[in-house]
């Protein structure tokens, strides 16, 4: 576990369709700051902050809201988290770096803290798994994507629009 070098990716490319607003979700102002700034602050608060923090965007309109330290990459295909992570992993900035791990964080997470991210990484590393995801169980999960499990654990994360009526009864969601 000694060879651990972290970069992070903030998912900021979504359209924010559940917000019903012409303003891009990441530019929505909360307590004086654009929503997209909060995950950057949480990452900076970590005991060992990422070497690089990527902002994965679907449009250029949020660039002005990013910290100067952000490395922004364009997600050309709006195909969810997989496309966002692929945009980071194919970027020259990632490929020329020396990170061994990538922490992926939702851009719409204003309550996230550095301590919570430290705890998540610690548990993930101790588990020995190659990938970890944060989930939550909600009484009313609404239009969030669901965690589909099988006997071995998480089988997939499925977007709401792709869920069968039976799968829509699942209350466990991807918490980012």
UniProtKB/TrEMBL annotation:
Catalyzed reactions per annotation: N-acetyl-alpha-D-glucosamine 1-phosphate + UTP + H(+) = UDP-N-acetyl-alpha-D-glucosamine + diphosphate
Pfam families the UniProt entry points to: NTP_transf_3
Keywords: Nucleotidyltransferase, Transferase
Leader sequence segment: none
GO terms, molecular function: UDP-N-acetylglucosamine diphosphorylase activity
Keyword set includes Transferase: yes
Class in the EC hierarchy, top level: transferase
Residue ranges of domain MobA-like NTP transferase in the record: 8-130
PANTHER family: BIFUNCTIONAL PROTEIN GLMU, NUCLEOTIDYL TRANSFERASE
Protein name per its UniProtKB record: UDP-N-acetylglucosamine diphosphorylase
């Amino acid at each position: 576990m000694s060879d651990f070098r972290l970069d992070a990716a903030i998912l900021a490319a979504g359209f924010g369709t559940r917000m019903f607003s012409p303003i891009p979700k990441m530019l929505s102002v909360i307590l004086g700051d654009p929503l997209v700034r909060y995950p950057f602050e949480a990452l900076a608060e970590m005991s060992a902050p990422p070497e690089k923090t990527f902002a994965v965007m679907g449009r250029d309109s949020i660039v002005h809201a990013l910290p100067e330290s952000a490395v922004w990459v364009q997600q050309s295909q709006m195909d969810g988290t997989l496309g966002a992570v692929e945009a980071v992993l194919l970027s020259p900035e990632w490929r020329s770096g020396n990170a061994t791990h990538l922490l992926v964080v939702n851009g719409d997470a204003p309550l996230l803290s550095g301590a919570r991210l430290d705890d998540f990484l610690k548990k993930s590393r101790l588990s020995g798994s190659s990938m970890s995801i944060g989930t939550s169980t909600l009484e009313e999960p609404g239009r969030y994507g669901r965690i589909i499990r099988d006997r071995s654990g998480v089988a997939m994360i499925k977007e709401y629009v792709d869920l069968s009526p039976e799968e829509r009864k699942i209350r466990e969601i991807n918490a980012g």
